[in-house]
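thoughts on both lines:
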Amino acid sequence: MRGSTYRTLSCSLSISLLLLTCVVVAPAQKKSRLQDATRHAREASEVFTQIMNVREKAIPKELLDKAEAIAVFPDVVKAAFIFGGKGGQGVVSRRTPNGWTAPAFFNLSGGSFGAQIGATKTDYVLLIMNEAGLNGLLKDKFEIGGEVGVAAGPVGREAAASTNPRMDARILSYSRSKGAFIGAALKGAVISPDNNLNEAVYRMKAREVLTNNSMTLTQMPAGVRIFPRTLARYSER
C-alpha cells in the first residue's frame, strides 16, 4: 500500500514539475525568438540605411518607388572549398496602401561547384518590382532566376534614366561586399520563409504577414518596426 502511495506521489510530483517547466520555458523561448526577430530587423535596417546614405551609389529613388516589396539579407556567408554554398537570413516587407507591412522573415541559400576556395560575407538587397515577382516570393521555396526574371539593379542618381530596358525583370538585385555596392544578378539562390520565426513572432506564416494589410505599425512588435519605418523614410507613395 505504501509503495503504491509513493509511486502515485512521485508521479504527481513529476507531472507538476513538467508542467512548471513548460510554463517557465515557453515565455523564455518566445522572448528569445523576439530577440532574433529584432536583430534581423535591425541589421536589415542598418544595411539599407548605409547603402541609401551614399547617394551617388545608392538605389535610384525612381526604382524604390516602383518596387512592390523589398528584401534585405545582411551578412550572407559564402564559403567554398571545391563545393561552395551560401546562406543567410533576412527580412521582406511589402508595400500596401497603408505603408509597408511588418517584416516577414526568410532564409537565403544556394550552392555551386567548381575550383574555388575562400569565404566572404555579402549584403543583398532585392527589389521585387511587380505582382509576378511577389507571387514567386510567396511560394514555399523560390529560386531566383528560375521562373521569375532577375537583373542586376542600376546604381546611382543618373542610372535611373537607363532602367527602361531592365524593367521587364521582375526582381532587381544588388550586393555589397567589402564596401563595394553594385547591381548583381543573384541567380540560383533559393529564398524560403522562416515560418518557425514568423509564427513565433506573429502567429502567422510569411504569406499571411505579407498579405495582411490590416496590421498597423503600432500593432507590430516594437522590435521589428524599425524596418518598415526605414523603408518609409526612403520611399512612400
Q: What stands out?
A: Strands lie at 69-96, 99-100, 104-128, 142-143, 150-152, 171-177, 180-183, 190-193. Confidence is low (pLDDT under 50) at residues 17-25. The first strand starts at residue 69 and ends at 96. The CA atoms of residues 145 and 200 lie 30 Å apart.
